[in-house]
Amino acid sequence: MEMSAKVTMLCQLAFFALWSFQIRADGVTTLEARQLRDEVRDMFYHAFDGYMQHAFPLDELRPLSCQGEDTLGGYALTLIDSLDTLALLGDRERFGAAVEWIGENVRFDINKTVSVFETTIRVLGGLLSAHLIASDYSTGMKIESYNDELLHLAEDLARRMLPAFETPTGIPFGSVNLLHGVDEHESKITATAGGGTLTLEFGVLGRLTNNSVFEQITKNAVRGIWARRSKINLVGAHINVFSGEWTQK
């Protein structure tokens, strides 16, 4: 956990360095860089405030109708997805409020079928990064009342996705039901990214919880894909998770 926190802190420092230090790149002056920084901040808050006003606690905001919509799982997806950005912007008030609300209200024991890939990169990743930030003094965003609520949610969510990895190749199904596991009619075809890019989030979770299963299953998925590479070390776009045959090369 200590190493993960240090990595998080270094990423934050690098991000703020690009904002704050007097640097020039490709003819961009310090003043112009700060103006661009402010534009990025304003764009984020335009989107975030719009979501909170018109869509929260649903997953996403439909920009034309200004209505909310549950598109992934029905657990305030955009709020979870925004946690690390709020922290990077130094918004202690909103970051703290979001962490508290998620800890008190989000649960994953729901009859929802979700994308393994999207849920991993957006929800599991969002919870883990926010956990590291909220629990470490060195980030400058530590929440005194925080008691690992996001980590517990992340572990629960990951456990509910484990049935997706129960395939002959080790490559996971594309979707899984958070309450019932993989549906018997679930497609055996999945995207390469759905099996080959999950090690970061599951690996961090495994090390934070001292449970190697999370990291091992995603490494097995990567090995399952790599073992089926072409003679010139290329992989296809979609693969059958049972037969290991590429359905789109």
From TrEMBL:
Residues 1-25 form the signal peptide. The keyword Hydrolase applies. It is found in: Endoplasmic reticulum. GO terms for biological process: carbohydrate metabolic process; endoplasmic reticulum mannose trimming. It comes from the Eukaryota. GO terms for cellular component: endoplasmic reticulum quality control compartment; membrane. One of its GO terms (molecular function) is mannosyl-oligosaccharide 1,2-alpha-mannosidase activity. Keywords: Endoplasmic reticulum, Glycoprotein, Glycosidase, Hydrolase, Signal. Its EC number is 3.2.1.-. Belongs to the glycosyl hydrolase 47 family. This is alpha-1,2-Mannosidase. The lineage of its organism: Eukaryota, Viridiplantae, Streptophyta, Embryophyta, Tracheophyta.
